[in-house]
Specification:
Elements lengths: L1 E6 L6 H11 L3 E2 L2 E2 L1 E6 L4 E4 L5 E4 L4 H4 L3 E4 L10 H12 L3 E4 L3 H7 L7 E2 L6 H7 L4 E2 L5 E4 L2 E4 L4 H14 L1 H10 L27 H8 L8 H7 L4 H12 L3 H19 L4 H8 L4 H12 L3 H8 L4
Parallel strand pairs: 1-4, 1-7, 7-8, 8-12, 9-10
Antiparallel strand pairs: 2-3, 5-6, 11-12
């Protein structure tokens, strides 16, 4: 079981604060919990929030000492974070713990000096303020989440779900992460580089969403699908398909297809003993060389090493 300390910094954003326990708490491996999640703060007890609620946080910062991963959630306090918390985060990072933030929690990591020289992101509406205050950070304001070494940051609100699903995928594999996504009724694991601000996040009422076409494509990832194939299914032009695809997902059709094919390959590597050429064919990556290149770029492991690392988690 992996141990996670979720740090509440008052006034805490209650939605952000709930995400790690809701997502990571649904992770089970062979019927056992995959994570122990403890919410902590500098002064245990009632903690003010950015809304009308008050929450009670039972644990102090000693929870960080026992954790493998530390997640700082969103906060309305972007100045004058308590020195004790900053020191605790620096100590945790120096000890090699995985450090993450959701939304404006990135301001806390930046004040601790943990983002200097790193790539990071935060809630897009606060990106100008962040860049002005922390010029040593390579801010990427247009993505869902960023992983730079042992430090991860995510954009606001629902991007925290994507970050936590990414943690599950990194720890236990794509099949487990997508199973958790289904349990929490979230989108399958999305790439961190996907745009956090999508021009048309909801389909128009006239019913022109491409959701049905994406579902159709997921059932045919083993086929050599093209933009023309997707456009034909959606009964639209390739140009219109490309524009609407980006509006709805933040990705081009081919980027989305490649991401889904690599995820399918990861699931096949985790859950089957199929030869590599069959994994490549069934996922639509065509050849073992293509499979090796894409899986290595995504995970840092060869397909064989990825299978060896993650089949034990199933």
């Amino acid at each position: 079981m992996r141990r996670v300390a979720v740090v509440a910094v008052p006034p805490a954003t209650t939605f952000d604060l709930s995400i790690p326990e809701l997502v990571l708490g649904e992770t089970t491996i062979d019927g056992r919990p995959g994570y122990q999640v403890r919410i902590c703060t500098v002064h245990p007890g009632p903690v003010a929030t950015s809304g009308s609620m008050e929450v009670t946080v039972p644990h102090g910062l000693e929870a960080v000492d026992d954790a493998d991963t530390v997640i700082v959630t969103g906060t309305g306090a972007r100045d004058d974070v308590e020195p004790r918390l900053l020191a605790t985060l620096r100590h945790a990072a120096a000890a090699g713990k995985r450090i993450a933030s959701i939304c404006t929690g990135a301001f806390v990591l930046a004040q601790a000096g943990l983002l200097d020289g790193r790539s990071a992101t935060t809630y897009w509406a606060k990106s100008e303020e962040f860049s002005a205050r922390f010029p040593a950070v390579r801010l990427r304001p247009d993505v869902l989440y960023v992983e730079d070494g042992n430090v991860l940051t995510s954009a606001g609100l629902s991007a925290g779900i994507d970050l936590c699903l990414h943690l599950v995928r990194s720890d236990y594999g794509a099949a487990t992460a997508n199973a958790v996504a289904r349990l929490v009724v979230a989108a399958p694991v999305r790439p961190g580089g996907q745009a956090q601000f999508i021009a048309t996040p909801l389909p128009p009422e006239r019913g022109t969403s491409l959701a049905a076409t994406r579902t159709w494509a997921l059932d045919r990832l083993h086929e050599p699908l093209s933009r023309a194939d997707l456009a034909a299914h959606a009964t639209t032009s390739v140009r219109t398909l490309t524009r609407r695809f980006h509006d709805e997902t933040g990705l081009s059709p081919l980027q989305w297809l490649l991401h889904q094919r690599v995820i399918r390959a990861q699931e096949l590597l985790e859950t089957t003993d199929l030869p590599m050429d069959q994994v490549a064919q069934l996922s639509g990556l065509a050849t073992t060389d293509s499979l090796r290149g894409h899986v290595s770029r995504r995970t840092g492991l060869t397909p064989s090493a990825y299978r060896a690392a993650f089949t034990q988690n199933q």
